Amino acid sequence: MDISFSPQEEAFRKEVRGFIADNLPKDLKGRARRDMQTREDFIAWHKILYKKGWVAAAWPKEYGGTGWNITQRYIFNEECAAGETPMLLPFGLAMVGPVIYTYGNEEQKKKYLPRILSGEDWWCQGYSEPGAGSDLASVKTRAAREGDHYIVNGQKTWTTLAQFADWIFCLVRTDSSAKNQEGISFLLIDMKTPGITIKPIIVLGGVHEVNEVFFDNVKVPAENRIGEENKGWTYAKFLLVHERSGIAGVARSKKAIERLRLMGAAETVDGTPLVETGEFARKIAELEIDLSALEFTELRTLAQESRGHSAGPESSILKIKGTEIQQRITELTLEAAGYYGFPDQHDFNDNEYPVGREYAVGQAGHYLNMRKASIYGGSNEIQRNIIAKAVLGL
Amino acid sequence: MDFSFTEEQTLLRNSVSKFLTDNYSFDTRRKIAKSEAGWRPENWKRFAELGLLAAPLPEEFGGIGGGPVETLIVMEEFGRALVIEPFAQTVVIGGTFLGDASKELKDEWLPKIAGGETVIAFAFAEPQGRYNLADLTTTAKKQGSGYVLNGNKAVVIGAPWADQLIVTARTAGGQRDEKGVTVFLVDKKSKGITTRDYPTIDGLRASEVTFENVEVPASRVIGTADDGLKLVEKVTDTAIAAHAAEATGAMKVLLDATVEYTKTRKQFGVPIGKFQVLQHRMVDMFMNHEQSVSITYMATLKLGDSEAERKKAASAAKVQIGRAGRFIGQNAVQLHGGMGMTEELNVGHYFKRLTMIDTLYGNVDHHLKRYSSLS
Question: Which of B245, B276, B299, B344 could form an S-S bond across to B75 if both were Cys, CB 3.0 to 4.6 Å?
Answer without folding.
Answer: B245
